[in-house]
């Protein structure tokens, strides 16, 4: 089984460098995929209230038969539940859907800045942590200004910020800010959603040099940069290949060459956290 390096936050909380994304892994097949992934060695599983699969993820975690203390289950609070009362019940509902005594890592999915209730949502997570409903708390898609504000108003700093990171959108400035603050960067859609990334000559060259697939080369790039990648994988073969990428070491030149693929218009869709609103 591949030994997975970890990334550590300001409070000592650590995440494995590669986890399992579960978007659209639902129903019995989703539960089976989660269980198989844990059996293969995954110890970080990522879902969200809005993925509508928390029940399947929870069943998969239970069915895996692995010591619960070894598995970090992450979920996310949706935009429509930011107000204090809604946030509290949503956090508890996620725990019920998952069938767990507590969620290991609970994030705010998007800041929804025009709604301007994300500080209330963050305060609800701080309270949930104090009550033992949630073990660790973080955010997703927050910009530095959002991060500074929630810490200033509550005194609590997130352990994680899950953001869009892939070769076309490497986010160097935001990653540097996270490192300075001791905030773990998690990358959603870490490989991108287009074959174009995997067809890039530089990525194919790196893959060839290491005897790995282009997708593994991209995941190794994430590991080298200290970001936690959470690619979705439903088949045992795909799950094993993604996890094996954690053992691949890229040199500085290879990392820089992949990072150089970044584009000004590199986002996968119109999801700038300064303006995007999630329901």
TrEMBL record:
Keyword Transport listed: no
InterPro entries according to UniProt: AKR, Aldo/ket_reductase_CS, NAD(P)_OxRdtase_dom_sf, NADP_OxRdtase_dom
Pfam families: Aldo_ket_red
Signal peptide interval: none
Coiled coil: none
Top-rank taxon: Bacteria
Ranges of residues in domain NADP-dependent oxidoreductase: 18-261
Keywords: NADP, Oxidoreductase
Keyword NADP: yes
Family the UniProt entry places it in: Belongs to the aldo/keto reductase family.
Protein name, UniProt field: Aldo/keto reductase
């Amino acid at each position: 089984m591949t030994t997975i390096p970890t990334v550590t936050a300001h409070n000592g909380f650590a995440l494995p460098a590669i986890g399992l994304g579960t978007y659209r892994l639902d129903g019995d097949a989703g539960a089976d995929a989660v269980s198989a992934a844990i059996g293969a060695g995954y110890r970080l599983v990522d879902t969200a209230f809005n993925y509508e699969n928390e029940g399947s993820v929870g069943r998969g975690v239970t069915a895996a038969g692995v010591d619960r203390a070894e598995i970090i289950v992450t979920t996310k609070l949706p935009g429509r539940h930011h107000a204090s009362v809604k946030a509290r019940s949503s956090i508890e509902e996620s725990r019920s859907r998952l069938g767990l005594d507590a969620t290991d890592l609970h994030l705010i999915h998007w800041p929804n800045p025009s709604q301007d209730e994300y500080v209330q949502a963050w305060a609800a997570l701080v309270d949930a942590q104090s009550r033992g409903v949630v073990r660790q708390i973080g955010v997703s898609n927050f910009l530095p200004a959002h991060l500074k504000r929630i810490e200033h108003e509550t005194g609590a700093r997130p352990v994680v910020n899950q953001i869009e990171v892939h070769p076309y959108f490497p986010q160097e400035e935001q990653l540097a800010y996270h490192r300075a603050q001791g905030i773990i960067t998690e990358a959603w859609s870490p490989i991108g959603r287009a074959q174009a990334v995997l067809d890039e000559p530089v990525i194919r060259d790196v893959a060839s040099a290491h005897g790995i697939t282009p997708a593994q080369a991209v995941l190794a790039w994430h590991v080298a940069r200290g970001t936690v990648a959470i690619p979705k994988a439903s088949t045992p073969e795909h799950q094993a290949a993604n996890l094996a990428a954690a053992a691949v070491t890229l040199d500085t030149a290879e990392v820089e060459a992949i990072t150089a693929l970044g584009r000004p218009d590199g986002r996968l869709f119109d999801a700038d956290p300064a303006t995007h609103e999630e329901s």
